[in-house]
Specification:
98 residues; 57% helix
């Protein structure tokens, strides 16, 4: 897991008790909230991220809830063509994003 991906998980963990901090996602990560939560959900689904089972379950539940509020698909499935093209699983240099 890259440092950017760890930062994304830390962000969700830090902001989840307060509703998510959606206003800070675009400036900090260069992603819309929907894309951000899909990416975090994918990370949690495909990698442990060094987090314990309870924390991963909390983060997954939070991301699914946020995606539902945003009117987005609730579940990430790696083989789903509607989500796999929008979720980047390779390392991303956040500074390169507008």
């Amino acid at each position: 897991m890259t440092s950017d991906e760890r930062a994304m998980l830390a962000f969700v963990l830090r902001w989840s008790p307060f509703g998510g901090g959606d206003d800070y996602i675009l400036p900090e990560f260069g992603l819309t909230p929907a894309a951000f939560y899909r990416r975090v959900l994918a990370l949690l689904t495909l990698q442990s991220g060094g987090t314990d089972v309870a924390t991963r379950a909390h983060l997954r539940q939070f991301c699914v809830s946020k995606l539902s509020q945003l009117g987005q698909p609730k579940h990430f499935t790696p083989d789903d063509p509607t989500t796999s093209s929008t979720v980047r699983l390779s390392p991303v240099n956040i500074k390169d994003h507008p």
